[in-house]
Specification:
It is a single chain. The protein has about 450 residues and is of the alpha/beta class. It folds into three domains: about 70 residues, Arc Repressor Mutant, subunit A (Orthogonal Bundle); about 120 residues, Aspartate Aminotransferase, domain 1 (Alpha-Beta Complex), CATH 3.90.1150.10; about 230 residues, 3-Layer(aba) Sandwich (Aspartate Aminotransferase, domain 2). The protein is built from 15 helices and 16 strands. The strands form four sheets. An eight-stranded mixed beta sheet has the order 5-12-11-10-9-6-7-8. A three-stranded antiparallel beta sheet has the order 1-3-2. The protein has a three-stranded antiparallel beta sheet with strand order 13-16-15. β10, α10 and β11 form a beta-alpha-beta unit. It starts with 19 loop residues before the first helix and ends with a helix.
């Protein structure tokens, strides 16, 4: 263990209205953020630090108590107080700049309004830290859990039942949606099989299928989602996002859901249901999930990346028994399995009720942001596509040239927009932008509205 430098950069302003204990806690956080303090460093005792700073021990004790409550220092009986995990830069609200390539620095300065980014700023940081600390309590694993930790699978089952209305008979842990698609493409489907995907759609899934040697064909989508009658005969699988189509934002209608699963049963197709934005429904109750309608032919995929953060690298799959067995056999054969670390954190986050609280907060925030954005666009007579759901909406354009020109103009004004063209595997037939409203703060979104409306008008 190392000792904290006795020359820690701590100074207190006795003329400030900010209490000395708060100033001290802030200063110690900054010391950790800049590298003066690191995990394992021992801090001075409250008495020694009080003497050095010329303050009462009450001040230093209050600062230490606050930092202990935040979870990044801990006392050891008879040994002292130690830094456990340095706080995130967000704890000080003063990010520490680091070296970065010029292009990367320029990109990071843009206000990112592309879809698919979670509202990580809405996470309760105290709850988040508690979950990580609790996740470290169990003994280290001595063997791999190919299907995922049992407690994680139970937590996901409860989540699906409570928040998605799906009574999942068996859950497999995954490394996220794309990782699950790779496993299905490799372990379940065979090289040369034909897979139908939404067009436009999720291009990482398309590439995963192609890398596995599968043939991919696009199926058009409209205001009712994927068109089942356009799925070609002979397709072995259909990949779709029925809850909130990515990127067009429509919802697969009830009639089309029934039509799709009936075709799958008759023709022996596997339907891969990507539950993109499935937890974010604002206007009406969600339609039954495909996995609930036809668990015998549907592989349902979900992830924590959009509802929480990609930090966990955790997702799930609910699939027919034969499909699940093929995936587990593939993991056994290759020695792969999803990382249990993120699974443990999700378990603790759910166990304390923090997952449910976050989802309720997330739905309220996204509904309000969508209303603000949609109202501003409507007032400027800018057309909007997509259901009242999810964390993005679509503004259509009349030409590819208009899309290119608006994207460039937005970047010149410090805003990153996502064009629809990149979501096509073949020649784009629809042009416009998908506007995400989760990744930034609400204040930044509101501040950008005048420029955004001008760009899109």
């Amino acid at each position: 263990m190392s000792h904290a430098d006795t020359a820690l950069p701590v100074s207190l302003d006795r003329e400030s209205d900010t209490p000395l204990a708060v100033q001290l806690a802030d200063a110690l956080r900054r010391a950790a953020a800049t590298g003066h303090l690191r995990g394992g460093d021992r801090l001075p005792s409250t008495r020694a630090l009080a003497d050095r700073l010329g303050v009462s021990r009450t001040v230093t004790s209050a600062a230490y108590e606050q930092l202990h409550a935040e979870g990044w220092i801990a006392g050891r009986h008879g040994s002292g107080t130690y830094v456990t995990t340095p706080p995130s830069y967000a704890a000080t609200d003063r990010p520490v700049p680091g070296p970065a390539p010029a292009a990367e620095a320029e990109q990071s300065s843009l206000l990112d309004l592309s879809p698919g980014t979670p509202w990580a700023g809405g996470l309760d940081r105290a709850a988040w830290r508690r979950a990580w600390r609790a996740a470290a309590d169990p003994d280290p694993l001595i063997r791999a859990h190919r299907a995922g930790l049992p407690e994680y699978r139970s937590a996901v089952s409860e989540h699906l039942l409570r928040h998605r209305g799906l009574a999942a008979g068996s859950v497999l842990a995954t490394g996220g949606t794309t990782a699950a698609v790779v496993e299905l493409a490799t372990a379940v489907l065979r090289r040369g099989d034909l897979v139908a995907v939404e067009e436009p759609g999720y291009q990482r899934a398309v590439q995963a299928f192609r890398q596995a040697g599968l043939r991919v064909t696009g199926v058009p989508v409209d205001e009712e989602g994927l068109q089942p009658d356009a799925v070609p005969a002979g397709a072995r699988a259909v990949y779709c996002s029925p809850a909130h189509q990515y990127p067009m934002g429509s919802r697969l209608s009830a009639a089309r859901r029934v039509e799709l699963v009936e075709r799958a049963r008759v023709e022996g197709m596997l339907v891969i249901e990507d539950d993109y934005d499935g937890e974010l429904r604002f206007d009406v109750a969600p339609l039954p999930m495909l996995a609930a309608l036809a668990p015998d032919v549907v592989a349902h995929l979900g992830t924590t990346s959009k509802i929480l953060t990609p930090t966990l690298g955790a997702g799930w799959m609910v699939a027919p028994a034969a499909v699940a067995k093929a995936v587990l056999d593939y993991r056994e054969l290759t020695g792969t399995r999803p990382s249990p670390a993120g699974q443990r954190v999700l378990v603790e986050f759910a166990r304390a009720g923090d997952l449910g609280r976050h989802l309720r907060k997330l739905r309220r925030e996204m509904a309000e942001r969508r209303s603000v954005l949609a109202a501003a666009l409507a007032a400027a007579q800018v057309p909007v596509l997509g259901d009242d759901a999810g964390a993005h909406l679509v503004v259509p354009f009349t030409s590819a040239e208009m899309e290119v020109e608006r994207l460039a103009a937005a970047e010149r004004q410090g805003i990153r927009l996502d064009g629809l063209s990149r979501h096509f595997s073949a020649t784009p037939t629809v042009h416009g932008v998908a506007l995400g409203y989760a990744g930034c703060s609400r204040e930044a979104l509101v501040a950008a509205l005048p420029a955004l409306v001008t760009l899109l008008r």
